[in-house]
Specification:
This protein is an all-alpha fold and 266 residues long. The protein contains 13 helices and two strands, in the order αααααααααββαααα. A two-stranded antiparallel ribbon has the order 1-2.
Length: 266
């Protein structure tokens, strides 16, 4: 013990301990952190390369070989992964045929391929990223979401999300059964005729509140009055019903009166 204590008290003992500590720290860092980072980089590079192949075979005809755009399609540089995920996941792209607006249809690519396409387009320029599940989870403030929706969205989508017609054959699609992720991405990227709402204009929490309102309104809100007429409101729908019912009653009265014996003798 005396011999060991003498070694510990040696002037170089502290330096030796420090060297061993630095070596151990460096070894641990080299064993874990760089390997994970390199693995992540390799995975991202593979996804970008795969996405580029998909792009060249399925998208470059309209958007150009370098995504610079053409007369048949807009440029994709800087649109971000969120725009690609929205357009391709909802089946709007690839476009089936030229028209005033790309309609929703079954998607052509698999989720893995959509992720690869998104990675490739994202590598071309900085743009909105695909939101995380927490960002569009429908657990926001539904009251605030209703107010924001009425202020920013109801002019086109109807206050209940039923959709509506626009000019020149365009339309605002109904929001029923739309994935919350796609509602969030649409607000973030502004597809087709829709304006975009980046975080600088509409913070993340406000977009989440709107998602919550749309989800509650289109999926859970009961319709005790029976068949709705686009949820125009009880007064409008009631007036429309009375007009139809009154017209039918008048028509029946005229039909019955025309078949009475007195009417036939004239």
């Amino acid at each position: 013990m005396k011999k060991l204590s003498a070694r510990r008290r040696h002037p170089l003992a502290a330096i030796v301990v420090l060297i061993f500590a630095l070596a151990a720290t460096g070894g641990l860092y080299a064993a874990f952190a760089p390997a994970k980072k390199a693995e992540a980089d390799d995975s991202a590079s593979i996804a970008v390369e795969a996405g580029k192949k998909l792009y060249l075979s399925g998208c470059s005809t309209c958007h150009g070989l370098d995504a610079q755009g053409s007369s048949d399609g807009p440029p994709l540089v800087g649109v971000g992964a969120a725009a690609v995920d929205f357009q391709v996941s909802t089946g709007r792209m690839p476009l089936q045929q030229p028209g005033a607006q790309a309609p929703r249809k079954p998607e052509v690519y698999t989720p893995a391929q959509i992720e690869q396409l998104s990675a490739y387009v994202a590598s071309l320029g900085v743009g909105p990223k695909i939101p995380t599940a927490n960002m569009y989870a429908p657990d926001g403030d539904i009251v605030n979401g209703a107010e924001l929706f009425r202020t920013n969205c109801s002019q086109c989508h109807n206050f209940s999300g039923e959709g509506g017609a626009l000019t020149q054959g365009k339309f605002a699609p109904p929001l029923k059964n739309v994935d919350p992720k796609h509602i969030y991405e649409a607000m973030l990227t502004g597809p087709q005729n829709m304006p975009s709402f980046p975080d600088s204009t509409m913070p993340e929490q406000q977009k989440k509140d709107i998602v919550t309102y749309v989800r509650e309104t289109t999926h859970k809100e009961p319709n005790p009055g029976g068949l709705g007429l686009g949820r125009l409101g009880p007064v409008s729908e009631g007036l429309f019903g009375w007009i139809i019912a009154l017209g039918l009653l008048i028509g029946c009265a005229i039909w019955i009166a025309a078949r009475t014996p007195k009417a036939r003798t004239k």
